[in-house]
Write the C-alpha cells for this entry.
Amino acid sequence: MFISETRQSLYATSQTITGETTMSQTRVGPDRGSNTSTPRWVKVFGIIVIVLVLLFVILHLADPDRHGPGRHTPVQRG
Amino acid sequence: MTITPGLRKFVLTAHVASSVGWLGAVVAYLTLAVAALISEDAQTVRAAWIAMELTGWFVIVPLALASLLIGLVQSLSTPWGLFRHYWVLVKLLLTVFATIILLLHMPTVNHFAGVAAETDSVNLGALRGELLHAGGGLLVLLVTTTLSIYKPRGMTPYGWRKQHEQRKVSHST
C-alpha cells in the first residue's frame, strides 16, 4: 500500500519535474526510487571516490613535494 | 522558493550554458597543457602558460562560479531540491569540490606563468601537474554532465521524509 502510493506520488512529481527541468527531455519512469534503500549506483560511486581519495593521499604521502609552486625541477629547453 | 516557468527555463539555460562552457574551457586548457608539454619550442611553452593563466582566471573560474551559483538557485527553485535526490546531491558535491580545487590551484598557475614569462626554463613537472588537474577536472565535469542527463533514481532519506510530509499535508487538506 505504502509503496504503491509512493510510486504514484513519485510519478506525479517526476512528470512535473520532467516537463520543466530536464536537459535531455528524458522521461522519468514510474519505478524510479520506489524503495528507501540507497541505490546501487550511489554505493558504487562512493567506493570509487574513496579509492581515488586514498590513492591521492598515498601518492602525496609517498612524495609530499609533488604539489605546489617552485617544487619542480626546471628543465632548460630551446 | 518558487519561480515562474519562464524564469525557470531561463535559469536552466544559464546553468547548461555555464556548465558546458566550463567543460569546453577545460578541454581548451588541457590542449594548451599538452601543446606545452610536447613542444620543443620555448616560445610556444611560454605562450601556452600565459594563455593557460588567462583562460583559467577569465574563463574557467567565472564559469565554475556561475555554474555552481546558478545550479544552487535552480535546484532550490524546482521540485528537485538540493538534498532530495542523490544525483543532485552528488552533482553539488562534485561541483563544489572541483571549484575549490580550481581556486586553490590557480595561484600555482600564476606562479609558473610568471616564471615562464621571465625565463626560458620549462618546468615539465609543473606541466604534468596541469595535465593531472585539467584531466581530473574534465573527468568530474563529464560525470556531472552525465548525471544531469540520466538523472539516476534514488531519493535521500531527507527526500523521503519531505515527500512523506507533503503527502500527509495534501491528504489532510
